[in-house]
Amino acid sequence: MSVGYERGLAEVADDVWAWVQPDGSWGWNNAGLVGGDGASLLVDTLFDLRLTQEMLDGMAGITSTRPIQTLVNTHANGDHCFGNQLVDAEIIATEACFEEFGMDSPEMLAQLTTADLGDPVVNQFVREAFGAFDFSGIVATPPTRTFVDQLELAVGGTRVDLIEVGPAHTNGDLIAYVPDAKTVFSGDILFIYGTPIVWAGPVDNWIRACERILALDVETIVPGHGPITDRESPKMVSDYLRFIQTEAAERQAAGMSATDAARDIELGEFGEWTDSERLAVNVHAVYRDNDPDYTAPPLAQLVVEMAHLIDRT
Length: 313
What we know:
Elements lengths: L7 E6 L2 E5 L10 E5 L4 E4 L5 H10 L1 H4 L4 E5 L17 E5 H6 L5 H9 L5 H11 L14 E3 L2 E6 L2 E7 L9 E5 L4 E9 L11 H12 L5 E6 L7 H21 L4 H7 L14 H12 L8 H12 L3
Parallel strand pairs: 4-5, 5-6, 6-7, 11-12
Antiparallel strand pairs: 1-2, 2-3, 3-4, 8-9, 9-10, 10-11
Helix pairs in contact: 4-5, 5-10, 6-7, 7-9, 8-9
């Protein structure tokens, strides 16, 4: 696509904008704005208050005459909702997102970035992933309106379809589709040139979410992380997910632990994507999909496994 990958506001279609944050790694998400007659809709906020306020200031030339009346959260991860308190608007998300809301704790993240976790490899990983963000002052501000399956909105006369596609990345994922602009805000269903991470799954459902995007009349996609893209990209993500399914299932059938399987899998071309350490989480997700009795480790152990997967060389 012709839209460059530069930080800030980019118009991706008539009256549709993306707020983009390279390099798309941990916490550096994208957001979006849809303008209508006298009103606008914001898709997601950012990981801290400073970044969110900077985004809102950058959008002020639009929202001064078309104020934000609706905020949509694509899911409950903090990088997509920790700035909610700065937006005086109705907040819409899926019912499943509402139920997960608050599981990401800014206080916990703030402590993680400064605490000695007893392992220098893990300390370095956590600080590199989250040390750039300021988690102070954040007040959890949950959705005020929820839905199941699909919700059609009118934003100053502009139609926006909210489509539930979770559980996939999280339990509560949605995509926001602007039919007249042939544009989709995918949330974290799409990481472009970054490694997806399966917090919820099943992986098959995430693949179906990619197929749902491709079934729409869409030309432009604003991913949850990474550069603005087109309809070729959902296949890239589903190809990765299918690859992980196959590789992990072979090792699971051979009796290999998920931790050892993640260290054994050679990613090939997918190894060029950022944050390849997320493989550690994704293998556990596949094992869980294949075995209803399988229990993945708690988050703290997953962080350790990701940190040491980076350090394996």
